[in-house]
Structure formats: C-alpha cells, structure tokens
Amino acid sequence: MPTARTGVAGAALDRQFWVIGGFDGTAPSSAVDRFDPLSGSWSAAPALPEPLWFPAATAFGDRVWVIGGMDASFLRSDRVYSAGSDGVWRSESSLPAALAVATIGALSNCLVVAGGMDASGMSSALAFSQCVEAPPPPPPPPPPADTLTAVLTLNPITLNASSNGQWISAHILPNGWAATDIVIPSLRLDGVPPDMGGPISVTATDLTVKFPRAPFAGRAGGNYDLALTGITTEGESFRASTPLVVQGSTVVARKRTLRPLARGPASTGVVVSLQRAEPVTIDVLDVQGRCVDRLYQGPSATGEWTLDWPRAGQSVPRGTYFVRLSRVGATDVVRIAVLR
C-alpha cells in the first residue's frame, strides 16, 4: 500500500479494492488508494472531501459509499459520500446521528448501517437504513435475427437393422456463412450429438462430421425428415434438414426402447420399453439440443412404462422437443410435439 494507515475502510468495485481514509500516524487521512489484483499494482484515486478515520465503506450499485468516521478534529461524523469508478466523490444525505467504527452492508436496494461509536464516544446500538428506488428492468433483448441455414447431406441415406458401420457422415454446407464458425459440439441431428471421437473435416465452405449410427438404425422402418441444429461462434442458431430412410423389421420394432405417446395438443410423453432393469437417464431436449427437463434418472423397471411431459401443471412453450434415453452403450431419441 503506498501509505501506511490504520483504521481504514475497504470496498471492492470494478475488480479493484479501494482502501479509504484511516490514520497515517499523525492525523486522520483523506487518501484513497486502489489495488488491482490482476496486475498486482496500486494507484492513487481522488481523495475524500475530508479526512476520516474509522469510516465504514461498501459497494452499492455501481458506487462505493463511505459513511461516518472521525474527522480532522477527532469528532464523530454523520457525513456520507459516494464515488463511481472514476473516483469522483459527491455528498449524500447525512446519517441521522454521528458514528465512527460502524459496520455497513448492502441488502437488495438498501444500505444498512449499525453499531459503532456515537458522538459521545460510547458504544452505539443504533441501526439506520437508506433505500433507493430500484432501477427499471432492462429492456427485453431484440428479437433474434433470422436463423441461419445450411444444406445437409447424409451418407448413407438408407439404414436398416443390420447396417454395418459405426457412423452416419453428415456433410454441412452453410448458406452464405463460414463453416469454420460452427461450434461442432453444439450440433444435434434429431437430438443426437456428434461423435467427437470420430473424424472431422472442416474448411471455410463446408464441414463433415460423424454421428453415431445406432440411434437411427434402431428406429422403426419409415421415411424420416431429420433436423440438424447448432450454433455459431457468434451465438447465432442455424438449422438444416434432410431425409433418411430406415428399413426396419418387426424384430427391430419390438426392440425399440422409446417411442412417442400423444395424449392431446398440450400433453404428450413417451413409452419406455426395456427388456431388463438397468440404469437410465431420460431427458427432454429443445431443438437447440439443450436439456430443458429431466424426466427420470435411476434404475429402470423392466417391461413397458410411460412418462408424461409436460407434467401436470407444467407450462412449456409449444414446439418440437426430443426425448433422449441414455443407458450403458446405447442412446435412443424420439421427437415429440407440444402444440399449445
């Protein structure tokens, strides 16, 4: 610290620690020094309007507040000052009574001062509070810009229960923006994340990434319109879609562990079917691949059981969601829709 002092007050604002006032060994001091822990350096700030020994200080809102203390005449003070990050002090409303060696804190939109030494030099049991009107809430963020788009091609485009291979290769060609901006772990193909252990190829114009094949090959036979979603390094969303043909069989259909269950426009859910008890986690994902709810985690029951979502009394935005069942060695994903 540039100047040795006792009886100082301290407060933190804008990643700097303020050391305020005190006693320099001769008289009360008005000095204010600030310490930057990132650089490990001290700097002098504008001095207090008057010397104060044993003041109290705290950060409140975007300012440092200093109350009371003993002035140059060693008298207890009722003055209150505050300064913003520029260090320029201004006078605030005085305390109802003079205090030194008090304690101060900020609670919500109020300053609270308690205890200390009163004007007569006796211990004080008084407590004061000064509240300010809460600032209005910030305006809502602007509506998001149109979602970016891309062209998606899968290889292979036809799967069956006996399909060989570990992956589906997804080739992503952005429409008018750089493929190097794609945050690859954010990608979701019908709710399924990419295999980050597989080969990845990216240039300024296109991206090729692998997705696990099992969640798609295990679906019931039919034609699917798969949705790809993701975000860019600028936080913008993008989406693409492409068809996939699954040549299922009756054996595959019976072995499905997860299928959607529609109960009405505002209520849906899934049917879970497991041949043996095992630990599972069942999550609901939005179209960005973010987990918005956890339906179940723990040991499963054998046989067939249902889970409703949204739950009774739960309100969620309408739209498309994905339910993902994760178990050892396998992940199953189905799409559900909340219509109102």
Structure description:
With 340 residues, this protein is an all-beta fold. The chain has three domains: 9-131, Neuraminidase; 142-253, Immunoglobulin-like, CATH 2.60.40; 257-340, Sandwich (Immunoglobulin-like). It contains two helices and 26 strands. The protein has helices at residues 214-217, 250-255, and strands spanning 9-13, 16-20, 32-36, 41-45, 56-60, 63-67, 80-83, 89-92, 103-107, 110-114, 127-131, 148-155, 158-160, 167-174, 188-189, 201-202, 207-212, 222-231, 237-247, 258-264, 267-274, 279-285, 291-299, 303-309, 319-327, 330-338. Strands 12, 13, 14, 15, 16, 17, 18 and 19 form an eight-stranded mixed beta sheet that branches. Strands 1-2-3-4 form a four-stranded antiparallel beta sheet, with no helix packed on it. It comes from Eiseniibacteriota bacterium. InterPro entries: Kelch-typ_b-propeller, Kelch_1.
Structure at a glance:
This protein has 340 residues and is mostly beta strands. The chain has two helices and 26 strands. The chain has helices at residues 214-217, 250-255, and strands at residues 9-13, 16-20, 32-36, 41-45, 56-60, 63-67, 80-83, 89-92, 103-107, 110-114, 127-131, 148-155, 158-160, 167-174, 188-189, 201-202, 207-212, 222-231, 237-247, 258-264, 267-274, 279-285, 291-299, 303-309, 319-327, 330-338.
Q: What is the secondary structure topology, with strand pairs?
A:
Elements: E1 9-13, E2 16-20, E3 32-36, E4 41-45, E5 56-60, E6 63-67, E7 80-83, E8 89-92, E9 103-107, E10 110-114, E11 127-131, E12 148-155, E13 158-160, E14 167-174, E15 188-189, E16 201-202, E17 207-212, H1 214-217, E18 222-231, E19 237-247, H2 250-255, E20 258-264, E21 267-274, E22 279-285, E23 291-299, E24 303-309, E25 319-327, E26 330-338
Parallel strand pairs: 12-19, 13-19
Antiparallel strand pairs: 1-2, 2-3, 3-4, 5-6, 6-7, 7-8, 9-10, 10-11, 12-14, 14-17, 15-18, 16-17, 18-19, 20-21, 21-24, 22-23, 22-25, 25-26
Pfam family, one: Kelch_1
Protein name: T9SS type A sorting domain-containing protein
InterPro entries: Kelch-typ_b-propeller, Kelch_1
